[in-house]
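FAQ

Q: What does a record look like?
A: Structure on top, sequence underneath. For example:
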């Protein structure tokens, strides 16, 4: 993609070489915007809990292939200017122009390009890649670049604190400045003397844990990005610090305090009135462990805790006991994590400048004190070709383009302090990474926890870092190596050879990853040759970030290195509302595994209802592992996450933002094993999260279920509460003597039958009669009685979707193939009957929630079209209304029918009888009962609470993204950028 040629440059007033930029995706003479069909949309964001409007902007412009969710999040998060003013951005073109024009202008004026033509190609390629969601810069770039604000481009910062009160107060101030800019910071407090040491005045020192209290309060007050999310921070303490035991127990003790206060009636939910009385809640804590300590744990020896000023050993402790204390605290509240000090510094390219002592809040950026890193992530699914192979050459070229852009950003970027500015500009740390690995593996039929899956991840990561450093060497030949390279050249080149050797010794599992690895090895050799000659432009190049908000911007199914969260997710609809769909990687995976179209349809339908693949019709048990997810019926075991991290770690400059999920019944011994194996396998950092170990969760499902049962009933008009009690009794609505009806003949595994469904004049089925078996037989009598019961229930107002949810997927003979092209396989006659009724009488969005779609709709999905636009056999006006009206109430009725029997005493109104959108419900709103995000959907399917916070902006339950959380509704994060 690039090569060094003679040309103009502006470096230090000399003329030298420039980069020749080759086209990757664009065409000469055609602007990338002209290759896209654009459309106008309205963005209205509401809080589903109370119906209030959080944001609205009309007529925004996006490419037609961008999802509603991606457009909404970019509009609300990244468009600049006051809403309703002419200065407000309204098009993705404006946003991309604002950012990329700054990159191109800076690159041109600083000699990065051989000619103006190369600068134009760079500009067009960057614009193309961004509007086609091939990659994204980190959030601060979109927030700040090209605006009147500070041009802060870095998302990750590492600070330094010395053993003076002035340095400690500077730490508080610097963190506040970083939080205000929408970023996060980490710090190691090990230089601060312990509470077991004396001050020069003769008194006893406070110790780092006490100063953590002040920093925590500051972080809780200065919300990151101006109250858009909680502050993100990391606090690290070395394992040989005399106060290490107090540090380990800080958050575990506070968790016990939360339990006690909660049980006493205080509001301890996240954001609750009383949670601010609890300390140490705004930071992730990590213990920095050495090989000496881990060896002592393994050998059962004592380990010394050393004074900070003199270095003398103050106390000796049992290493196993201290390691156990770490595991117990992590088991109890998920903190502390571990950072493996010797491994980190063994891969350090700048040891002559100083050791790596800390990380950013999510542990993926590891570098010098008082430094920063800007990030960018590629969408791996964009490189999966039509023949289901990975386009390694295209991927490598895009890595080259992105690294050039990222380095240019350091040239024009601004920083919160002079110390950070000086170190960052001298060492130019970058963090290229990727997202959608989990989706890529599943789509190609590879299990996440498998040798094949790990081999693919390792090969891609190796190629990414090799391409990044090769381009860094090319830039060094043009605009010079980073300022600290000369002092660290020997160490830097040693680490480059370590990366190359790791790639050379990696073993491919199949032809899929062999082609990628071969190109990676070739690129590493070119990189080493160029680097030896010219040095490197960047001290660090790669890491794996959580890709929270930008993952949604790129329409990624999975974030960072994570597997799929679940097989079913929520999709936002044009005009408002959402629907539940099976992840689109599932049918693609089934096709690649050799399943026929009919089998794919049947399995996908099963997943839509159950949320997992266990006992899916026709799916081989050997293929279950391909569909294992982070949560759900078949969740990836904790060591599966650790093994994946270990596979890619040798090919990263930095580390990996990822939390190892552990089940609630995991033991302290399990935590010990995970932490020990992380060290043995060569990880740089590791954190665990045991389900439901946190108490301070906001308004969880378990709490909702404990509320009065009246809250679960369908909403009724407010005036009804003053009416006599018998006013609540249902009224039967009989069909007229002359009514329209549909007769369906069906065949399920050779058993023939007939179904007659009669409808009201204003639509809505009100009567069903079934004929199965000979007249006078027991079966025929039972079917007649069943038909009357269903018909009376429909006429008393029980929604058809409630019956559909109850009776589909019932399993008994006869079961098997049918003669209906829309329902190829039925698990019973009841399963077939109610699927057919749903297809004939329910709108698409309601059926989609239950996984019931026609053959044409499923074919449209496989072709990448919107199945809702087909219309089926429904009235077009009704379809338009159902797409425009928020379907929250429908979701509630369906979920209530799954979790509790319907009572004729409190029926929900039939869908056909409600022509208007659901207004704000009465007190005790049933809006709280239905799922509004993937995380909540998993809760309903599993029957337990998912341990994740609610979004403080829109009220939706968030989902994990690395070691943070991200909101599917509005893109807000709990700290990651």
């Amino acid at each position: 993609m690039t090569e060094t040629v003679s040309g103009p440059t502006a470096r230090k007033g000399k003329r030298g070489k420039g980069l020749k930029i080759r086209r990757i995706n664009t065409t000469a003479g055609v602007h990338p915007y002209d290759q896209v069909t654009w459309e106008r949309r309205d963005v209205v964001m509401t809080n589903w809990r109370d119906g209030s409007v959080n944001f609205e902007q009309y007529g925004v412009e996006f490419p037609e292939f961008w999802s509603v969710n991606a457009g909404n999040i970019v509009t609300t998060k990244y468009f600049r200017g006051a809403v309703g003013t002419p200065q407000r951005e309204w098009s993705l073109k404006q946003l991309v122009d604002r950012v990329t024009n700054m990159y191109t202008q800076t690159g041109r004026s600083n000699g990065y390009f051989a000619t103006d033509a190369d600068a134009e190609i760079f500009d067009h390629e960057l614009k193309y890649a961004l509007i086609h969601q091939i990659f994204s810069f980190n959030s601060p770039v979109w927030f700040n670049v090209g605006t009147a604000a500070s041009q802060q481009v870095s998302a990750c910062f590492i600070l330094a604190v010395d053993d003076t009160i002035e340095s400690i107060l500077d730490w508080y101030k610097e963190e506040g400045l970083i939080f205000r800019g929408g970023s996060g910071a980490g710090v190691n407090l090990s230089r601060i003397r312990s509470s077991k040491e004396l001050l020069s005045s003769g008194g006893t020192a406070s110790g780092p844990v006490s100063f953590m209290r002040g920093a925590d309060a500051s972080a809780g007050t200065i919300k990151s990005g101006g109250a858009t999310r909680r502050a993100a921070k990391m606090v690290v303490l070395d394992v040989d610090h005399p106060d290490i035991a107090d540090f380990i127990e800080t958050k575990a003790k506070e968790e016990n305090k939360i339990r006690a206060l909660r049980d006493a009636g205080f509001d301890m939910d996240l954001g609750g009135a009383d949670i601010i009385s609890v300390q140490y809640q705004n930071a992730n804590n990590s213990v920095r462990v050495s090989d000496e300590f881990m060896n002592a744990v393994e050998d059962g020896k004592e380990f010394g805790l050393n004074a900070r000023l003199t270095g003398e050993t103050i106390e000796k402790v049992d290493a196993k006991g201290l390691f156990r204390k770490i595991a117990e605290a992590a088991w109890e509240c998920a903190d502390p994590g571990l950072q493996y000090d010797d491994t980190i510094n063994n891969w350090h390219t700048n040891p002559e400048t100083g050791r790596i002592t800390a990380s950013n809040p999510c542990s993926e950026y590891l570098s010098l004190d008082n430094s920063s890193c800007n990030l960018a992530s590629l969408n791996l699914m964009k490189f999966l070709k039509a023949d289901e192979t990975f386009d390694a050459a295209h991927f490598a070229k895009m890595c080259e383009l992105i690294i050039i852009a990222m380095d240019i950003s350091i040239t024009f970027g601004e920083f919160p302090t002079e110390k950070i500015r000086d170190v960052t500009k001298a060492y130019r740390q970058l963090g290229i990474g990727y997202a959608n690995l989990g989706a890529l593996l599943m789509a190609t039929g590879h299990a996440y926890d498998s040798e094949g899956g790990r081999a693919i991840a390792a090969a891609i990561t190796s190629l990414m870092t090799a391409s990044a450093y090769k381009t860094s060497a090319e830039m060094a030949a043009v605009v010079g190596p980073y300022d600290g390279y000369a002092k660290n050249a020997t160490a830097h080149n040693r680490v480059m050879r370590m990366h190359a050797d790791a790639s050379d010794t990696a073993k491919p599992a199949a032809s899929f990853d062999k082609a990628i690895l071969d190109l990676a090895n070739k690129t590493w050799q070119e990189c080493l040759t160029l680097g030896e000659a010219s040095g490197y432009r960047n001290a660090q190049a790669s890491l794996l970030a959580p890709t929270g908000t930008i993952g949604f911007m790129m329409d990624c199914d999975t974030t960072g290195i994570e597997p799929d969260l679940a097989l079913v997710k929520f999709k936002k609809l044009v005009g408002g509302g959402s629907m539940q769909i099976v992840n689109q990687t599932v049918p693609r995976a089934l096709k690649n595994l050799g399943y026929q179209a009919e089998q794919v349809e049947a399995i996908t339908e099963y997943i839509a209802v159950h949320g997992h693949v266990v006992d899916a019709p026709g799916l081989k048990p050997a293929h279950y592992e391909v569909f294992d997810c982070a949560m759900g019926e078949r969740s990836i075991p904790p060591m599966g996450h650790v093994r994946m991290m270990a596979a890619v770690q040798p090919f990263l400059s930095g580390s990996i933002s990822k939390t190892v999920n552990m089940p609630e019944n995991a033991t302290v011994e399990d935590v010990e094993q995970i932490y020990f194996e992380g060290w043995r396998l060569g990880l740089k950092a590791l954190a665990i999260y045991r389900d439901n170990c946190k108490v301070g969760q906001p308004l969880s499902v378990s709490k909702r279920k404990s509320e009065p049962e009246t809250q679960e009933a369908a909403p009724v008009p407010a005036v009804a509460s003053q009416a006599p009690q018998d006013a609540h009794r249902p009224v039967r609505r009989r069909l007229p003597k002359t009514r329209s009806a549909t007769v369906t003949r069906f065949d399920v595994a050779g058993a023939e039958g007939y179904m007659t469904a009669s409808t009201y004049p204003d639509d809505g089925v009100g009567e069903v009669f079934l004929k199965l078996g000979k007249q006078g037989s027991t079966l025929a009598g039972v079917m007649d009685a069943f038909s009357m019961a269903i018909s009376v229930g429909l006429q008393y107002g029980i929604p058809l979707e409630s019956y559909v949810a109850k009776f589909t997927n019932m399993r008994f003979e006869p079961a098997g193939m049918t003669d209906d092209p829309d329902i190829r396989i039925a698990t019973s006659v009841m399963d077939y009957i109610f699927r057919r009724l749903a297809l004939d009488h329910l709108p698409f969005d309601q059926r989609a929630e239950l996984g019931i779609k026609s053959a044409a709709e499923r074919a449209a999905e496989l072709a990448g079209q919107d199945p809702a636009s087909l219309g089926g056999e429904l009235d077009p006006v009704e379809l338009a209304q159902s797409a425009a009206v928020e379907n929250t109430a429908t979701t509630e009725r369906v979920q209530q029918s799954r979790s509790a029997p319907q009572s004729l005493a409190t029926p929900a109104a039939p869908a056909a009888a409600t022509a208007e959108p659901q207004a704000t419900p009465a007190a005790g709103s049933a809006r709280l009962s239905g799922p509004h995000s993937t995380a909540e959907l998993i809760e309903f399917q599993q029957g337990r609470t998912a341990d994740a916070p609610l979004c403080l902006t829109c009220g939706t339950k968030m989902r994990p993204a690395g070691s943070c959380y991200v909101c599917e509704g509005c893109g807000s994060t709990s700290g990651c950028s």
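Q: Is there anything notable about this one?
A: The radius of gyration is 30 Å.
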